[in-house]
Amino acid sequence: MTSTTAGSCLCGTVQFQISGEFEAFFLCHCKRCRKDTGSAHAANLFSATAKLNWVSGQDSVRTYRVPETRHEKSFCVKCGSALPGVQSVGILAVPAGSLDGAIDIRPNAHICISSRAEWDEHLENIPKLDGLPG
Ligand SMILES: [Zn+2]
Ligand SMILES: [Zn+2]
User: 91: which strand partners?
Assistant: First the structure.
């Protein structure tokens, strides 16, 4: 049996389904991933075998590739949300935050940790709030 996971962008224009299994899940702290996400790290799932099906909004998906690198980012032109894409090397990359359904894979590793932001240290030790700061 093949598992199917649904996902979408922030504005809801783009909806997709991933059919199949993910082989890897990496949290990448490299400078490109930090720029790309605006955050401490990217959180991407990878699969060489899973299939990506666009349910809606495929014409609103754009892919930017950093010249002369393998770094690619697919996103919704209306809201800028990160979206899945098949990389030039043929591997499907899926931003974990774009998924709406639960997944049963846990991150395999933090990668490019030597490139992390200077504030990205011992983040597990800072206060955790259930909601917004009061
Ligand atoms: Zn959108
Ligand atoms: Zn990276």
Answer: none
